[in-house]
Amino acid sequence: MLLSRIAEELCVPFFGNDVEICSIEYNSKRVEAGALFGCIVGLVSDGHNFAKQAVDKGAVALICERPLNIDVPQLIVSDARSALAEAAACFYEHPERSMHMLAVTGTNGKTSTTYMVKSIAEAAGKKVGLIGTIVNLIGDERIDTARTTPESADLFALLRHMANEGCDLVIMEVSSHALVQDRVHGIMFDAGLFTNLTQDHLDYHKTFENYLNAKKLLFRQSKVAIINIDDPMAESMKQGLTIPILSMGIQNSADYRASGIDITTSGVTFHLHTPHGDGRINLHISGLFSVYNAMGAAALMDCCGYALKDIIAGLGQLSGVAGRLQSVNTFAHSIAVYVDYAHTPDALENVLTTVHGFAKARVIVVFGCGGDRDKAKRPIMGEIGGRHSDYAIITSDNPRTEDPMTIISEVEAGVKRTGTPYVVIENRAEAIGHALQVAKENDIIVIAGKGHENYQEINGVKHHFDDKEVVEELLSKHR
Prior knowledge:
Layout: H1 3-10, E1 14-15, E2 23-25, E3 35-38, H2 51-56, E4 61-64, E5 74-76, H3 80-91, E6 100-105, H4 110-123, E7 128-131, E8 136-138, E9 141-143, H5 152-164, E10 169-173, H6 176-180, E11 191-194, H7 202-205, H8 208-216, E12 225-228, H9 234-238, E13 245-249, E14 256-263, E15 268-274, E16 277-283, H10 288-303, H11 308-317, E17 326-327, E18 336-340, H12 345-358, E19 363-367, H13 377-387, E20 391-394, H14 404-416, E21 422-424, H15 428-438, E22 444-448, E23 455-458, E24 461-464, H16 467-476
Parallel strand pairs: 2-3, 3-4, 4-5, 6-10, 6-11, 7-10, 11-12, 12-13, 13-14, 18-22, 19-20, 19-22, 20-21
Antiparallel strand pairs: 1-5, 7-8, 8-9, 14-15, 15-16, 17-18, 23-24
């Protein structure tokens, strides 16, 4: 594609001769011959400082926010991030326009909701693209992901791949970081869903109001807003919206409601009420939060015209989501073990409350907090872990570049306030082993914080570590 075509779409002039663009790139290390390089200004580095390196590697043109003394054509823009997204959308010939585009944002529930949407669409015979935290999917094809929402150049390349593979629908997790950083700029979603908002990512957003406003950005590029009316932030999310708003809820009157809820160890059943009919839902994922996720998925698919029978069938055939209240094989031991990605106060409270609902004996929790992230939530997490368990084991999560014991001490301060018996074991494998050793008949162990992750990041280095694997390995030795 010629640079002039991209410049025309961006409505900016360019300086220099017209050139053929073969790829769009923002990472100078990945630049190949014929690339258009976007000089993104990030939190840590400024892409303008890597423009010369990109050109030396083969970049033939630049998107930049100021003229650079480099002899290649340059598109001078006021915001390189949004311009990069527009350039990528143009280069990949707007794949988002050929598929239903759905988005989920919120502190918790995004991943599970996207998998529910995928299951519903597949029950209707459609091919689905899924973009999210665990992995990106094109039907059954798995594509590793480095972040919840890819950078715009990577995202539009992925969407083009999905369109070429015949996807009818794309369901995306959209993070607050992605919205602020214009990673999904240029996409008009058929519907956007807000699940909930609780404390997280304040290391980045600084204030809860900023965090809320970041999430709200999704509805600037959605045709319909679907909002969890039971969430305390619902009214704030609705304020000022000019697009149609649909609500979902249990406690309050809503367009999509659930009643007759029955939660068991194996899942949850409930009656779903929608504007287009009612039906009984049988989910193989336990917890009240799963009901909210299912309602959100149903609302998204209803907006796209999917039949209620396919919604019921799709939700019923989903067996579970990796790392979301995932049961671990205990090889006939008389205990139960679950791993869960809960790494926010609300998520930890939800999973522990759910487990307490069907526990016959003690609930033992193994948890910590990640490093280089929102420090304010650590004592809150500690207090929730203590208050909703019978025995707490505080351990290391992903300390990243922080001292693990510093993080643990901040979590410990919250646990102490509850009076719940607890122990500190920094080594996560040893902490899991201790939980298995002290567990008695009918006890339930919840290992929280990492869920689907198969690594532990220590001093900036990722080491292979999988909670589920550790449990199974330890228990297999004592069969």
